Amino acid sequence: MNSIRIEMDNEAIITAEEIRLILERYRIGKKPLAKLLGWGETTIIRYMEGDIPTNEYSNKLKTILNDPEFYYDLLNKRKECLTNVAYKKSKKAVLSKIMASKIYAAAYYIVNKSSAEICASYIQYLLYYIQAFSLAIKDKEMFQEECGISSNQMPYHKLYEAMKKNGIRTLEVNEEFLTEEEKELIDAVYDSFTWYGPKALRAISAFEKSMIKISRDKYNNKIISKDTLKTYFKEILTQYHITSLKEIGNYPDKRVQDIRELNI
User: Fold this and answer.
1) 198: how many CB neighbours lie within 10 A of its CB?
2) Which of 5, 71, 106, 237 can pair with 242 through a Cys bridge, CB separation 3.0 to 4.6 Å?
3) By the 8 A CB rule, do 43 and 20 touch?
4) Contact at 8 Å (CB) between 133 and 185?
């Protein structure tokens, strides 16, 4: 009976292989990681050699494994525990992990432009239009994620929840994460749409969704497919005489007027 209980208690304990993955993912050594966590210098070494962590220590390591932004914050708060070389190496690795998905790079580029004076839901609207105009003007997606249709009206729900959980703060978006062409498009959408508050953007996107075909992904989630988004916004380009990034502002300016006239 006791052996069964021990197995059950240890079922969720982080494994040595998972700890090794942390070290590789964030390019951090065993002793430096222990120092970052405020633990004894040989703690991680002992876990790698077979010692079993407490639930508290295991949970902290699992959070680091599964949440790069948590590790990024820890790294910056405790960077004095590391050499400058070790800190920079690990920082570069964790930023690469966070920005591995282009949507995160775009989102944090927006956060940086706003000096973090922006909310998670507003970022969602901007990302939606960045993707839409990238598809329409550049004939290519900015990021892989599909635009979801959810009860909270957030098109990129996973990112939205992550930003709500971790808070809005600036992160370095290095040249390797976004091209100059991508930044130019993000800048154009940002400059065109941030004249309007969340209520206006919500009204514009709600109007669009009433006109756009909704489909389902392989998991049966409601989405606006990239092809549908591209086709719809190609029509927007024609209707609102948009031939370049500089003219994207024609759309929200005129669309807001159209919606007001419909509601009179």
Assistant:
1) 12
2) 237
3) no
4) yes
- Which residue type occupies 187? D
User: Residue 32's pLDDT band (boundaries 50, 70, 90)?
Assistant: very high
Rounded Cα–Cα distance for residues 87 and 90 (Å): 5
* Tens-place pLDDT, residues 170-209: 998 988 899 999 999 999 999 999 999 999 999 999 889 8
Cα–Cα distance between 43 and 33 in angstroms, integer?
Answer: 9
Short-list 191, 226, 224, 231, CA closest to 205: 224
CA 257 to chain centre: 32
Q: Are strands 147-148 and 215-216 parallel, antiparallel or unpaired?
A: unpaired
Structural tokens at position 48: 């790698």
Closest Cα to residue 189, out of 119, 116, 138? 138
Domain ranges of the chain: 2-98, 110-263
Closest CA to 186 of 69, 104, 259: 104
Hey, what long-range contacts does 87-93 have (CB within 8 A, 24 or more apart)? 89/27, 89/28, 90/26, 90/27, 90/28, 90/32, 92/27, 93/25, 93/26, 93/27, 93/28
- The span from the CA of 214 to the CA of 211, in Å, is 9
